[in-house]
Predict the structure.
Amino acid sequence: MISPCQSQSKYNDIPNRYHSLLDSSLIKAGSNTQEILKALNNVPKLQKEGMAFLISYMPKRDLTTLSAEFILENVEYAYKAREKYPWCKALPDSIFFNEVLPYSNVTETRDPWRKDFYERFAKYVENETNLKDAIFAIANPINKEVNVEYNVERSIVDASPKEAMEEQMATCTGLSILLTDAFRAVGIPSRLAGTPMWTNMRGNHTWTEVWIDNEWKFIEYYPKDLNKSWFLADAGKADPNNPIHWIYAVSYKPTGQYYHASKYGFIHLYDELGPDGIPKEFQEYIEWEKENSEIDEPYIHGVNVTQRYIDLYRKSLDNKKLNDDEMLAGFVIFKDNDLTNSSSRMDCRVDVFKGDKKLILDSRPVPPTI
């Protein structure tokens, strides 16, 4: 057990607010405690608080396994970016600590990507002074730089940068991890966002967000522009009353809720909401996964950003002229004739036909693939 007096002597140059958190993390580290202490004690004074932040909120899986060398290199190169790039130098500590400094996003393998990506992507932003230009200087060429393309044949859903680059393929989670890590490597605040399931029950998606102009905006691995992508219409129909259909963003620091759009997030929601909260079509799949997979307790923290995406979608429709053969339509399905009772509303598939031609494809649910 670590006593308060030990705590005071051990944490020189670290703000008091981290001391009890560090005590707890060192206990969780178990046999790896000396590696965590080595990282904390060997970091330069100006990087002490950043190191304290990382260790204070570090998941147990990392406290028990990460080496001091891994953690120190990650912190060293994050601070190199903070010193080198004007957009990173201007960040408040809260954003730098939570969206630049972290070495991980979700459940991916913990690769030492930071130094490689710092050196690999520096050439793209060497002459940039504008943050938006820097964002696209990274996003536009990233697929060619890392030689990774979208492919559902990938073997790992939550592929780390190394795993994706070895296979030369990834799906949306792996691609978003690559892009987010590339942004962080050059000091651009970035995080993952996604949904466990669209409201049309046609699957899920993961993407990247960046902090620019004092707000979060989304971008994809194959970028068009900030806050523009094929999925905005789906995201704009998210259900703020149903966590299955929320839009989540990742936070390294605890927020009081979890990020349920990652691997096994759907299963964690099942445990949280119970059978009545999950569509019946998925329950057999979930039970099979629970019996056949080793599923950790949730440890990826998140924030609910659903309303922001709803607002973005509504704004995109403002003053948007429909074609002559287009119309806006909303559907509300009731399970009985009581149309005044909101509890009679149903969450179900809707198919639209013109004569014998189906205008909306079958949206039968499929197990999430992320």
User: Anything to note?
Assistant: Residues 2-8, 361-369 have pLDDT under 50 and may be disordered. Residues 92-320 form a domain with the C8orf32 fold fold (CATH 3.10.620).
